[in-house]
Amino acid sequence: MFRPLLVVIVAYLLGSIPFGYLIVRSKEGADIRETGSGGTGATNVSRRAGKAAGIYTLVLDALKGAVAVVWAVVLVGSSSRAAWIVTAAAIAVIVGHIFPVWLRFRGGKGVATGVGVFLMLAPVALLCAGVLFVAIVFFTRYVSLGSMVAAATIPLFVWLQSVFVTPVADLRPLLTAAIVGAALIIFAHRGNIGRLFQGTEAQFLR
């Protein structure tokens, strides 16, 4: 009982590391949450501190998602019961990014961390969602819209990956991680949704 709990707690704390906040604080001496969308993610960081800072944030946020999954697999293995613990860790690291304990539960949108998670759990599904993300951002220039659509379609692509690419005996844990992860990411974009409807959402400049 202690080991699964430890896995989830560590995953949450890992997700809570606010790389975007720390990068902007060290470079600009400012709180990234007071800029633009108020998130600590790569898009908002790049707007405040430049593209390089945004790329560093993207990579580090994705890395913590990947590490959380690897950490869980190493500790609990790959049995059917262990798959649910890995799912819990995957969800916990995304929750940690969106609601970081170090920043009074006000963090980022969870997209890059989700990328790291599904890079480990369902790479083909992630690739399909990534193509959709790029297409939407290219044609609309709204990163938030691309992120939400990509997140919303991850469960579908996870199912398709299981049917056509890599069959999974019990898809429930992976599908649960995909559905809950997508819901968390879309919830974190609730402010962006309002701005999209109002026509005030900032666009990504090519």
Task: Summarize, please.
The chain has 206 residues and is mostly helical. Helix content is 75%, strand content 0%.
Please, what is the average pLDDT?
93
Residue runs with pLDDT of under 50 for 5 or more positions: none
Structure class: mainly alpha
Number of individual domains: 1
| Helix-strand pattern | HHHHHHHHHH
Number of strands: 0
Could you give the distance between the termini? 50 Å
Sheet with the most strands, sense and barrel status: none
Level of helix content?
Answer: over 70%
What percentage of amino acids are in beta strands?
under 5%
Radius of gyration: 17 Å
- Principal-axis shape equals globular
Number of helices: 10
Q: Care to describe what's here?
A:
The protein has about 210 residues and is mainly alpha-helical. Helix content is about 75%, strand content about 0%. It is built from 10 helices and no strands. The protein has one domain (about 1-200).
